[in-house]
Amino acid sequence: LIPWPKVDFTKFGEIERQPLNRIKKLTAANLGRNWVMIPAVTYHEDADITDLEEFRVLTNKENEKKGVKITMLAFLMKAAVAALKKYPEFNSSLDGDDLILKKYFNIGFAADTPTGLVVPVIKDADKKGIFELAKETSDLAALARDGKLKPDQMQGASFTISSLGGIGGTYFSPIVNAPEVAIMGVSKAAMKPVWDGKQFVPRLICPLSLSADHRVIDGALATRFNVYIAQLLADFRRASL
Ligand code: CAO
Question: What kind of fold does domain 9-240 have according to CATH?
């Protein structure tokens, strides 16, 4: 690689120098390595979450007194666990010429904080219900924002979800969080006209973007995984099959 350009920016105008904090330095080193070393491809899919969002809003109304709001992220985690069980290659890591298949389901989620990006981890997400997942993600996100996450609360993820849906966006290409082999990006759901065979009907469509390490996961498998997640989100009864 040729050296990074060294420029005296003061020649062109006023500047301010800000040293990167510890989190930003760590993130930069990790993301830089992952971007260069992982041959990742991003696969996009649209999930119809009209009925799920209606159920989420209704359930939250019925449980107002419970003090926990169920979130789309909790359903995404549940759907991810079901898809990881169906397609175990996604719950793996490369170790030399071996693939390590994990029998546990720890789901990391990207959390935006004032000091940078951190990834808290929900341990044993397969053993937790939607309310529990929602409560734990919101507690961990609050700890993350306050800079109070302990190292073990950020370790051991086997798959990561990066949800930007509360902010906006249509699709994006998340960077795989090594040594994991895939990451699911979620953007903002929007009402879209969908053809039902006779007419266009308004449906709430959520964009999903799955980046996967091509050394482990080929395009057909990634697309099957995405299609399955979209089917689960469209009709969550499938998760009980
Ligand atoms: N589509 C549409 N709306 C969505 C949505 C989606 N996919 N996901 C969440 N929302 C809405 C919710 O309905 C909620 O709306 P109301 O306030 O009207 O109820 C609002 O967004 C907030 O949602 P939430 O409380 O469920 O929180 P969240 O899931 O959006 O966020 C967290 C939690 C921790 C993921 C978030 O705070 C965060 O940090 N996101 C950024 C992650 C990030 O930086 N990723 C990039 C990493 S790579 O650079």
Answer: Chloramphenicol Acetyltransferase (3.30.559)
